[in-house]
Write a structure and sequence with these properties.
Length: 146
């Protein structure tokens, strides 16, 4: 009977039967955790008179209940909420809730994150003036709380 199965079914059957009885397919290859935000470059331009800097325009989307992890930029970040509501969390400050049309500024090296506080997609538009040739977004490890 096995010889009548297509090749892919034979491979699948061989894989499953080779697994120890205590394993399930979910344990072998867990589904990836979906990312709750995306960031897309819109524009990249030089800074007139300073070849060591560049201007980046980034569009950020955050899913309902999602967040952008804590990060820093090697330069200044000025942005605006385009759609939805977010909470801006800046290290050492109280969280700030903002809705569409409100703006924020984070100086060079300021550790910050965003959390979508609305029931729909939140969108941000960020302008970064950063050091050229350096990753424009650098993650910050989570701090352990005492």
């Amino acid at each position: 009977m096995l010889s009548r199965l297509p090749a892919f079914e034979l491979c699948f059957f061989a894989l499953v039967s080779a697994l120890p009885a205590t394993h399930t397919l979910a344990q072998v290859s867990p589904a990836p955790k979906p990312q709750s935000f995306s960031s897309k470059p819109v524009q990249n331009s030089p800074v007139t008179g300073d070849p060591s800097k560049e201007i980046l325009l980034l569009s950020v989307s955050i899913a309902p209940g999602g967040a952008v992890p804590t990060h820093i930029h090697p330069g200044d970040c000025v942005g605006s909420v385009v759609e939805g509501s977010v909470e801006l969390i800046v290290e050492g400050k109280e969280p700030r809730r903002m809705s569409a049309g409100e703006a924020y500024a984070n100086p060079r090296g300021t550790a910050h994150s965003f959390r979508n506080t609305s029931d729909s997609q939140a969108r941000l538009l960020n302008t970064l003036v950063v050091d050229k040739g350096v990753p424009p977004v650098q993650s910050v490890p989570a701090q352990s709380k005492p």
